[in-house]
Amino acid sequence: xxxxxxxxxxxxxxxxxxxxxxxxxxxxxxxxxxxxxxxxxxxxxxxxxxxxxxxxxxxxxxxxxxxxxxxxxxxxxxxxxxxxxxxxxxxxxxxxxxxxxxxxxxxxxxxxxxxxxxxxxxxxxxxxxxxxxxxxxxxxxxxxxxxxxxxxxxxxxxxxxxxxxxxxxxxxxxxxxxxxxxxxxxxxxxxxxxxxxxxxxxxxxxxxxxxxxxxxxxxxxxxxxxxxxxxxxxxxxxxxxxxxxxxxxxxxxxxxxxxxxxxxxxxxxx
Length: 270
Known about the structure:
Layout: H1 2-13, E1 23-29, E2 36-41, E3 49-54, H2 65-81, E4 87-93, H3 115-134, E5 142-148, H4 150-160, E6 170-174, E7 194-197, E8 222-223, H5 240-249, H6 262-266
Helix pairs in contact: 2-5, 3-4
Pfam families: Abhydrolase_8 (PF06259)
InterPro entries: AB_hydrolase_fold, DUF1023
Domain DUF1023: 34-207
């Protein structure tokens, strides 16, 4: 419990510095198996741009420095793109993500099956409903969900349960093993608002373990350029991936650079 509290305290301390807004603690529960914490950089009730990051395998509050950092650099990037509008960047560590422990052989917890994502999607839906309900109706808002790795499956399952256009304005999946549906249009949103980042050296993103591989053209999403890197390298400053996430979060999607599939180019299909 003490280590989890220290991680959250360190995350909160990074707010209200270097031009950033104060960090807000939206949830902290040290009694959950791996802890629960939700931290927002910026006020989601007043923000024009809201982004929620959903992490995957091995997520636990006691070792959450990188998860909070990712949300922080997304705020930095979004603010650099659109400094005249307020951004809230949320790290949602609000479900029991799979761990590399005895849970690997438990169907309800293993990363090889969707049980943890099914349960987590319900909790994510409840959180997003709260974000919608408490947001100031006088402030236009644009909500982007960013799911990484197994967190993309959790996010996809949540999106697919909501009526069309009611969950989020844009969905971003990075390092995804699959999002639980066969096509982007099954996510309750126009396919043009479904975005996928897949580094060439990311073996998880190549798997397509949970239904269709979202990075493939047949899925119907837009694959954006990410630059070089592996499974955890989507939030590197000054790289294509983070820059493109910033454009999506702020709704400036005409600036998003698309991935070039050179095999398709040689075949005359791109």
